[in-house]
Amino acid sequence: MLKCKPSILSLALAAAGVSVMFAPVTVGAAENVEDKTPAEVLVPTQAPVEETELDLSNIERIEVTGYSRSLIDSLNAKRFSDTVSEQLSADDLGALPDVSMADALTRLPGISAVRTGGQAAEINIRGMSGGFVFSTLNGREQVSTSGTRSIEFDQYPSELISSAAVYKSPKASLIEGGVAGTVELETASPLSASDTHNFMVNARGMYNDRASEVYGAKEYGHRLSFSYQGKFLDETLGVALGFARLEQPSVATQFIGLAYNDNKDVDGVAGDTNGPIDNPANEYISEGFEVQHLGGVETRNGYMGAIEWTPVDNFTLKADAFVSRFDSEAFARGYRVKLGGPSASVANPVLDGNAVIGGTFNRNSKSYTRVEIVNDDNQDFDEVNSFGVNADWQLTDDLNVSADVSYSSAKSDFRNGLLWSNVAVDANADSPVFDENVSISYQLNGLNLPDVGFNQAGAFSDIDRVMVSKYGIYPFENEDEVKAYRLDFTYLLDNDYIASVEVGARYSDRNYSNNRSVFEYGNDGAFSKSEPPLKLTNDMVNVVDWEGDFSYFPSYLAIDLDAALSAWFPDGVPQPVQTWGNAAGVLDPQGYTSNYSWSVLQSGEVFEKVLAGYVMLNIDTEIGDIPVTGNFGVRIVNTDQSATLLENVAGDPALGAQNIIDEVGIINNYYAPTIKGITYTDYLPSLNLNFKITDDSQIRFAAAKVMSRPPINRLAGDASASVSDDGIINGSSTNNPFLMPFYADQFDLSYERYFDEGAFVAALFYKNIDSFIDTVAIDDFDFKGNGFNVPDYIVDPVSGEQIETTNGTYTTAVNNSEGGYIRGLELAYTQVFASLPEAWSGLGFNASYSYTESEVQSITSLGGDSVTQDLPGLSNNVLSATLFYSYEGFETRVSARYRDEFVSEQVAINEQVVNFAAETVVDYQASYQMTDSFGVLFQVNNLTDEPTKSYFGTEQKTGTLQYFGREFYLGFTYVM
């Protein structure tokens, strides 16, 4: 008879006041605990024993759901994994408590999230951003609505995911692609469910406590989910179905500082031209800043289905589907302040180093100093689809074959609608005149809101002064799909060293497309003569006052977009088109004021075909008296990538120039359509070893070469140039179809100790990254000499004067060989206080800490002077902790997630990488199980109303200050 001691799972459940049932388990000499699920293997085994029927009174079978079960199951899954990994599990479909998988994953050591609009969306692993994270669903590659390779995890409702794993070290059988790690999401396997039938309903109402401060925002929303798992035909047929709906208000109030991309001598001190420049002649000036109310509604509908059939013992066929629809309709209202650039008149400047962070800016005849009233309307319609069929045969006792066919697609239609107004001298005049009398005073206060003053403040809410000067719609449409085919073989070996060998192959065909289009009316910098400003009427507007922390900012006019557009365009609002516009070489060679060629040049397709094969040996042996398990193998990957490209050949037919007709019939013959790309092969070895030094402790070592492909949109071909109002030519080819992957050699060493009431894990990791993608800026670039069709002069739209053009900066993407290391430490501790008196035996604690550092840095000049900044996604210190308690059906917990300063894309500004301040996010949840089937729940997200704050280089140069509010949930769960 084999005597089993209590496991951490049983103790946790006893502490929660949950009864346990007993069931028989047979352990044979040929069985490994790694082949068992965490629910089947609750305690460590000794060396394999003779096959023995166990005493029923000593074997525990657990029937429980909730946070304690999820936590301890996750520990058990980590314990018996063959790689360095973190695990999340829910015993029942729909039992994970988080809003999305992004929130759920941040509970794991070394994982943090970037909040967008108050919600966790992109995750960072071990100090690396989402672009280095590879993601699968049911073992299949997933494409993204982001237009990159970075999965937006808020697309995946936690109610439809049964488990998640984060593989920090790879193995040869895993699909390549994650330098930071691989996130594997799993939906339900209905034949593995403990009950024959299970039905769950989860409903919650929600409330945002800042929504009342934002005119037009909704305060209330809801979450609703249904799930069913059932087994039929003597448990040979399983069915799982799930639906999850989220409708939540999108609320924020924000201040946005803009980059320091202008310069001017504001202090009258000449620069030091000898030696280091301590005081350059010019100081850096910000483009300006914005103050905005954000509101709207985000609606997500998720669907999951699976059918699993086992007609005979050695064959299983499973088909599954996951569909997500995430729609967002949001407005951004307030004003945008343009300081006026190098031509502005600046008085009383306040400096932070060489950057102006305060002063009084006055408009003059050459500057563009102004305040624009902003009423933007943004719509985002995202679709995610994932389908797959898997067949698994146990052909003989030793040979297993698995075949898989899958399809994943994503589509995003983001419509950026802009409605900008300026102040007129008299909006009722027959020919309204732009008010040139503009004076703006401001003083940044670092990570706090600034002091501001406007001489036109009273006009911002005056219908007799404000006129709409520009309306525009700028859609971003992305489509991404991948078809994949996979075949795997596993053959068991009978020897003392290698337990089995795995070989397999995978082929995938991916197609990404990006389409841009545009509609514009008017001019945001002044009043256009050809497209005059639009008059506002009382039925179109409401005066909006700022509240709370922003209450000292001047009021402004909020515009009812539908009412306004119906009045201005009675025959229907013109829709965006893909057009050359008045580009060079089309119609008027000097007509750059309406050059929309970017809408054609930035549209195109990317093609990626990948053929991969692997061989992996699974280790099961002993070194001395120490059992050793793990695997080693190699993955060979051949990649063929290409993209469509329009090359500027100045209309030379010999170079392939063709007549290209846009959607409005304009012909451009300057470009040659082509497809360019590259083919390469990679060899990715990996090793994972697990040394079981005692029954309760083990040491892991892993080493591998890993890769992450460039963001899919960075492979798209584009090359464009534009001329600014002052005649400077700037251009970019920020994408490049010849970009190679990121590569890294990585090593992991960890110690895991499991004890009766918890577990302790310590890990060290080191990654040596070969290269990164850099966007290189080339100053004084010869655009005409390099084939760009650019004008010799432009015409000032106001004065009519000719302005000679000059060469500016050209940016392009390259693989930078300057890589470097990322290294760190991770600690995790779980404690269940089962030995305390009964009323306190449900107390528990779970915490993790990670320290990460890197020598990898990049150069940024967004704050003026060129300075170094850390790798995007890297926080030196990340800490998460949860204190939980349960007693007689009542369960409560408080969780905190802290990350110190890090680098990421600036909130509300695309493609600007800035510094973010440290943040601590606290969540609270309490529930009570009133009956075996019915429970109620109360939850608060962002309990302390933690804002997001960013800055340019130094904290005095304010980036984005965004306040979201708290979200309160009240609901119930019903299970039968």
UniProtKB/TrEMBL annotation:
Keywords: Cell outer membrane, Membrane, Receptor, Signal, TonB box. It comes from the Bacteria. Its main location: membrane. Residues 85-181 form the TonB-dependent receptor plug domain. Residues 1-29 form the signal peptide. Belongs to the TonB-dependent receptor family. This is TonB-dependent receptor. The lineage of its organism: Bacteria, Pseudomonadati, Pseudomonadota, Gammaproteobacteria, Alteromonadales.
